[in-house]
């Protein structure tokens, strides 16, 4: 026996004795195509749908049912009177006209005033007083806003009219506005002082001197072409000639 035949024999025996993996049984069980076999429900036959001939008892029941439900119904005849109804007189058909009641002018005005009054009258609306919002400046973002008890100041009471111009000038000249005491000790920054100055035009530190505007605008001269110069001479020659009025010349010769 050769070495090759021995190896093949040992391999075949090893393959036969090799155990199946764990998932082999699950694959064999679930890899088969699923069959849908739904049993058909049995039809329950009624007593009138039985197969085969009916019994005597069934025929008796059927005739009883037919005698009760299969007979035609007797429709009652329509109710018709023997004589047609007599025509009612035309005068009785007419309804009695209601007499319209007349109202006087005083009654109409009283009714209109009664309708115009509201069912639930309300009082006149009174506007609420304007709220007094105290001045609370927020100087720093870290600190909360501090309220000043003296603000806002009461508005100045100005009379509606002045009897004379001198009274008005005296009122405005002697008027003094209240000043907050901490405001007297405030020191403005250099930037605020610079912004408070009036704007100077031109600026104080100008980059270069501004040229003076010309007295009269003179268009710059441009050199004419030969054609333009020739047309210009023709125009001057035409304008230098006297105005010709042949109609007036003929009239002058005819008269004189």
Q: Any overview of this molecule?
A:
The chain has helices at 3-17, 24-30, 56-69, 90-93, 105-116, 165-174, 181-184, 190-196, 226-240, 246-255. It has 256 residues and is mainly α. The protein is extended. Residues 74-84 have a biased composition (Pro residues). Residues 1-20, 71-100 are annotated as: Disordered. Residues 1-11 have a biased composition (Polar residues).
Entry keywords:
single chain; 256 residues; mainly alpha
Q: Secondary structure elements and their pairing?
A:
Blueprint: H1 3-17, H2 24-30, H3 56-69, H4 90-93, H5 105-116, H6 165-174, H7 181-184, H8 190-196, H9 226-240, H10 246-255
Helix content: 25-40%
Shape: extended
State the separation between the terminal residues, measured CA to CA.
171 Å
Mean pLDDT, as a whole number? 79
* Radius of gyration, taken over Cα atoms and rounded to an integer in Å: 64 Å
Task: Quote the beta fraction.
Answer: under 5%
Order of helices and strands: HHHHHHHHHH
Which residues form runs of ≥5 with pLDDT under 50?
Answer: none
The total count of strands amounts to 0
Biggest sheet descriptor: none
> What structural class do you assign from the helix and strand content?
mainly alpha
Number of helices: 10
In short:
Helices cover 38% and strands 0% of the residues.
């Amino acid at each position: 026996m050769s070495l090759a035949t021995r190896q093949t024999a040992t391999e075949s025996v090893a393959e036969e004795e090799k155990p199946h993996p764990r998932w082999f049984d699950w694959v064999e069980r679930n890899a088969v195509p699923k069959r849908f076999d739904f049993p058909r429900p049995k039809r329950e036959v009624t007593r009138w749908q039985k197969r085969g001939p009916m019994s005597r008892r069934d025929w008796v029941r059927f005739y009883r049912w037919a005698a009760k439900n299969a007979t035609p119904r007797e429709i009652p005849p329509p109710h018709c009177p023997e004589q047609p109804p007599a025509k009612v007189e035309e005068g009785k058909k007419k309804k009695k006209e209601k007499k319209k009641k007349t109202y006087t002018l005083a009654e109409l005005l009283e009714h209109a005033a009664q309708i115009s009054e509201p069912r639930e009258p309300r009082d006149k609306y009174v506007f609420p007083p304007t709220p007094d919002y105290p001045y609370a400046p927020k100087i720093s973002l870290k600190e909360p806003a501090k309220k000043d008890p003296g603000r806002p100041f009461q508005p100045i009471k100005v009379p509606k009219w002045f009897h004379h111009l001198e009274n008005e000038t005296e009122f405005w000249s002697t008027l003094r506005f209240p000043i907050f005491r901490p405001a007297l000790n405030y020191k403005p920054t250099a930037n605020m002082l610079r912004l408070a100055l009036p704007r100077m035009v031109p600026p104080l530190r100008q980059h270069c001197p501004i040229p003076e505007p010309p007295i009269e605008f003179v268009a710059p001269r441009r050199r004419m072409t030969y054609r333009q110069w020739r047309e210009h001479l023709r125009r001057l020659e035409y304008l230098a000639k006297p105005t010709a009025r042949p109609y007036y010349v003929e009239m002058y010769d005819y008269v004189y």
